[in-house]
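Lesson 9: reading folded outputs for more than one chain in a single document. The general rule is that every protein is listed as its sequence immediately followed by its structure tokens, and records are never interleaved. Here is the first one.
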Amino acid sequence: MNAPRRLRVGITIGLHSEAETLWNNGIKQNAVFLAEALRLCPNVASTTLVNTTAIPITSALPWDLQRWPTRGFEEAKDELDVVIELGGQVSAEQTAYLHQRGSKLVSYCCGFEYVHAMQAVLFNRPLWGSNLFVNQRYDAIWMIPQVENISKSFFETLRRQQARPVPFVWSPVFLNQRTEHLPRSGEYAPRGTSPRRISVIEPNIDVVKFCLYPILIAEEAYRSQPKSIERLQVTNAEHFARENMDFIALMNQLDIVREQKAVFLGRYETPQFLAEHTDVVVSHQWENPLNYFYLEVCWQGYPLVHNATLCTDLGYFYPGNDVAAGAARLLDVLHNHDAMAQTYREEQRQKIGRFLVDNEDVTREYTALLEGLYS
């Protein structure tokens, strides 16, 4: 069938509570940012967030329901030309209904599903059990670039459909909301000659972003210049430091731990932890070369020492798993960053512009992708 002149687009989410936070993972933010980006496409009439669970839609949700309308699937299903399955799964029956009325269904892949499947099997971390439903009736599979290398073939074989990379999109809108009442709006502030607080803020829930290499980078820098570091702070690691004997044994090999310059903390919201506790962020990824965390850190002007290959121009990049190179970059930050802090923040925001929802290239690419659904 021919495409409607202007498309009504729904993007799925899967709510677990009426006031679910936006900071426990990036999926809901991704849905909101995609809605914002698609709304600017000339062939889009409207965008709606579509909840696929039984959780009711109320004003307790942490986003503006006027700006980003949100409805349940049953309420919205007859008013959508395109449904993009992002954060909540569309069932076989719902898929059949959408196709029967001529709607298109897109799988938007923004998770490291091959890694999740691997860990589910190897480490007995059940994902689906006997209830696995793999939809093989998508009209297209779109994936953000950072998941292409490890998960593309996983998507294509199971879903019997080719997958293609699409623009990764972001907006500082929620970051700005969260930081508006913080000192300096949560932006980085130079500390002069004071020793620096180094933060490692990896999720530590799977192998793609784990805290060990950043800790080793901080250790190498500390061995070289201990007086330059006030403390190392590792979030999302308190349970390791209390309960995991392997982690404890590893940490006890390090000078920065033995000399009581390291603390292992629980979970924090990134904007607040940056503003209240951080001078430098050290990060490491394995098959996760671009994510919102990097953009949040750099947008606020914090120096980010990282190895993310899809944003090498942001922060202070080191290659691969090279701890010595990471430590050299960290020492560079400790001695030289503050002299250029304001320029750094301005340049970071300019470079992040290519990911913003209103970037003209982003608008152009998504306009073409939507048109392609009806080709």
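And here is the second record, again sequence then tokens.
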Amino acid sequence: MLKVSRSGYYKWKSADVSERAKRKEKLTKRIIWHYYDSDETYGSPRIHKELLKEGWTVAERTVGLIMREQGLRSCMARKFRVTTTDSNHDQPIAPNVLEQDFKATKPNEKWVADITYIPCCQGKLYLASILDLYTKEIVGWKLSGRMTTDLVMEALDQAYDSKKPGKGLIHHSDRGSQYASKEYREQLESYQMKPSMSRKGNCYDNACIEAFHSILKRECIYSKPKFKTKQEAQEKLFQYIEFFYNRKRSNSTIGYMSPVRFEKLYYQSVA
């Protein structure tokens, strides 16, 4: 009926199977590359987005199936929490100016800050981080063995020196004694920043920076061997935050771009 010989049909069919097999082989290699290039942190949604950027036409489900075939699995969250907020103090509390409005219209409009615990064989460590709500970039951070005012002050100074924000930036944090201290409040005033603090016991008021710390622990800490020394922790966190998270890791809330790339595009658009 099709005027094709039996041998010709089977030759076409085998060639079609061969082409599909070759395509899957190439696709599998790219999936494996993206998986290990992300230090085994990317799951099928992010790898799918990276493949689309490269020009592949493929479904996210197909990526997930191939990852399962190859035994590739993104790191999973682990339930573990150390309390780092000491709100039992008599320092002044700033009003909740942010009010869970996590949307920003430009870089250096709203920053959120928090402290989290970092496990280490050599002793306790605490990480103070500041995140820009527009770009999702970690604009300042500091690691220390003590949860003091100096810890958060150094993270703030680093962020200010790096970005030089204009007057009126909203700086939001929890009610911790470090952020409520006289020294920190005076530094915010000198930088012409508007302080904002979460309501007591409400973690949702600072959800964005809490989410970053959760991602950091899932991808950089709990999925890896425990840091043996404080120096190793400093080096690994520097590499993760500065080179991977800020400059390379795709973020779903900003179109699967890295924070640095997203900020660059903003300034190009307003130039």
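What the second record shows: The chain has two domains: 18-70, 110-270.
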